[in-house]
Amino acid sequence: AMAWRAAPRAAARLLLGRRGIASCIDPSTGLTEDQKEFQKVAFDFAAKEMAPYMAEWDEKEIFPVETMRKAAQLGFGGIYVKPDVGGSGLSRLDTSIIFEALSTGCTSTTAYMSIHNMCVWMIDTFGNEEQRRRFCPSLCSMEKFASYCLTEPGSGSDAASLLTSAQRKGDTYVLNGSKAFISGGGDTDVYVVMCRTGGPGPKGISCLVLEKGMPGLSFGKKEKKVGWNSQPTRAVIFEDCVVPVGNRLGAEGQGFSIAMQGLNGGRINIASCSLGAAHASVLLAQEHLTVRKQFGEPLANNQYLQFGLAEMATRLLAARLMVRNAARALQEGRDDAAVLCSMAKLFATDECFGICNQALQMHGGYGYLKDYAVQQFVRDIRVHQILEGTNEVMRMIVARNLLQG
Amino acid sequence: QAIDDDCNQTGQLLAAMLDWPQGTFASRVELEDGAVRVEREVDGGLETLRLRLPAVLTADLRLNEPRYATLPNIMKAKKKPLEVVAAGELGVPASAPRLKVLQVQEPPPRAGGEKVESVESLLGKLRHAGRI
């Protein structure tokens, strides 16, 4: 609010500053006019509605429901969901650009929004007409929020070994088991759950949509995390939880395939969130180097720090190009899309963490204080190297492509 | 203040023609009973006026915050039809522009200042120039 009330030129500089315009890391280069417009809305929203609050949301562990609903009004609740059920019908590249921009305002909240978007897309893509119309509109508007349940205490990277069972009884499934580390768990309304309806391995897995309030659905304690504090994380517990057969997405045994397809987009989205955090951190470092003086001159006069900033910018641009390349491959339905998404997620999340960490170092002691945003970007994106498939699993996927492909 | 010619005249002219009070460069407007409280952006800061209605107000950039464009609207914008209408079809008599530019000049160059030796000398010079 304050930035807008300031003199127009100063306000413009603040907003432009977030975008890094007229520099080598300008994120709008190579985009179409429409994409530049989407990006502008996302950057403006991030600067005005998210950045002033990201520290408070982190400290007080606030799930910013009203802010996310405002974002949903602009179309950010179902970005790549079809318009006939309330989505914005945009491409994967458009989505990446939007999440990257929003992430400069608050990475943790944007990451949750990307998970929500993936859930709505799953229902939109694999649900039948009745399911699409029942669930998607209220999710696109964020009247209701969604969570994605795949990971269990006993199955993380080895997702296909999940144990949550769904026994068919008449026209219902009865679920028993639990899911771990569920983003939004306990506060969200709709749960997209991968469970075992058949035999062992991936082919025995189906996808069910559950709703909060269903008997037998309960939640564990809220986890205390290093970052991602603007979204609650809880275990999701099923105890003889009865779910109508009409809540199954796709066919029995199709669940794992749905999960894998969802992860392609999810990996691009998480990588995009890392890009935004790194972009913001580079700008923060650039500002600090210009302002902070030691030994009688600004830090920016030191060649070591100049080289450091140059390396950060170069790595950021490389990561951004990897992510956008993967997004294009996915939206074009190319055969190499899945492995490109894995490479992009691996590269971008690793590089961007390094960039944010280096930016923190450049801030000296101030970088360690919670009054300065750079430490929150570091803490928030650390987990991007772990979820949506660990970066070790990403390497497995790429190696398999090279040695077996 | 229009951004093409920066004349800063239309609101003021209208108020004079109607003989209504004016609050220009409004950055905050509050309606009261039969009146309006206007906070204006002036060179020195903010000026608050209370004007009897009806009144003429002109808006400053800081009066409101524009809405965000929504993603669907951005996409629809390109598809909106652009209708071209000839001036004659509107029933507006074609006429020469009603504004005539009489003169355009640079502001006078900044004249050099003068240093004085004493306060009395300063007062004398100011009186002589008709400033006090």
TrEMBL record, chain A:
Domain spans labelled Acyl-CoA dehydrogenase/oxidase C-terminal: 253-403
Alphabetized GO MF terms: flavin adenine dinucleotide binding; short-chain 2-methyl fatty acyl-CoA dehydrogenase activity
GO CC entries: mitochondrion
Enzyme Commission number, as recorded: 1.3.8.5
Keyword vocabulary terms for this entry: Branched-chain amino acid catabolism, FAD, Flavoprotein, Oxidoreductase, Transit peptide
PROSITE patterns: ACYL_COA_DH_1
GO annotation terms (biological process): branched-chain amino acid catabolic process; lipid metabolic process
Domain Acyl-CoA oxidase/dehydrogenase middle: 148-241
Pathway of action: Amino-acid degradation; L-valine degradation
InterPro entries: Acyl-CoA_DH_CS, Acyl-CoA_Oxase/DH_mid-dom, Acyl-CoA_Oxase/DH_mid-dom_sf, AcylCo_DH-like_C, AcylCo_DH/oxidase_C, AcylCoA_DH/ox_N, AcylCoA_DH/ox_N_sf, AcylCoA_DH/oxidase_NM_dom_sf
Reactions this protein catalyses: (2S)-2-methylbutanoyl-CoA + oxidized [electron-transfer flavoprotein] + H(+) = (2E)-2-methylbut-2-enoyl-CoA + reduced [electron-transfer flavoprotein]; propanoyl-CoA + oxidized [electron-transfer flavoprotein] + H(+) = acryloyl-CoA + reduced [electron-transfer flavoprotein]; 2-methylpropanoyl-CoA + oxidized [electron-transfer flavoprotein] + H(+) = 2-methylpropenoyl-CoA + reduced [electron-transfer flavoprotein]
Enzyme class, UniProt record, top EC level: oxidoreductase
Residue ranges occupied by any Acyl-CoA dehydrogenase/oxidase N-terminal domain in the UniProt entry: 32-143
Pfam families: Acyl-CoA_dh_1, Acyl-CoA_dh_M, Acyl-CoA_dh_N
Keyword match Signal: no
Superkingdom of source: Eukaryota
Cofactor: FAD
Keyword Protease applies: no
Active site: E388 (proton acceptor)
PANTHER family recorded: ISOBUTYRYL-COA DEHYDROGENASE, ISOBUTYRYL-COA DEHYDROGENASE, MITOCHONDRIAL
Family: Belongs to the acyl-CoA dehydrogenase family.
Role: Isobutyryl-CoA dehydrogenase which catalyzes the conversion of 2-methylpropanoyl-CoA to (2E)-2-methylpropenoyl-CoA in the valine catabolic pathway. To a lesser extent, also able to catalyze the oxidation of (2S)-2-methylbutanoyl-CoA.
Name listed for the protein in its UniProt record: Isobutyryl-CoA dehydrogenase, mitochondrial
Organism: Urocynchramus pylzowi
From TrEMBL, chain B:
Gene3D superfamilies reported in the protein's UniProt record: HUPs (3.40.50.620)
Nucleus keyword on record: no
Primary localization class, coarse: mitochondrion
Keyword check for Coiled coil: no
GO biological process: amino acid catabolic process; fatty acid beta-oxidation using acyl-CoA dehydrogenase
Compartments, as annotated in UniProt: Mitochondrion matrix
Keyword annotations from UniProtKB, A to Z: Electron transport, Transport
Electron transfer flavoprotein alpha/beta-subunit N-terminal domain location: 8-88
GO molecular function: electron transfer activity
Any one Gene Ontology cellular component term annotated for this protein: mitochondrial matrix
Domain of life: Eukaryota
Family assignment from sequence similarity: Belongs to the ETF beta-subunit/FixA family.
Described purpose of this protein according to its UniProt entry: Heterodimeric electron transfer flavoprotein that accepts electrons from several mitochondrial dehydrogenases, including acyl-CoA dehydrogenases, glutaryl-CoA and sarcosine dehydrogenase. It transfers the electrons to the main mitochondrial respiratory chain via ETF-ubiquinone oxidoreductase. Required for normal mitochondrial fatty acid oxidation and normal amino acid metabolism. ETFB binds an AMP molecule that probably has a purely structural role.
Record note on quaternary structure: Heterodimer composed of ETFA and ETFB. Identified in a complex that contains ETFA, ETFB and ETFRF1. Interacts with ACADM.
Protein name as catalogued: Electron transfer flavoprotein subunit beta
Gene: Etfb
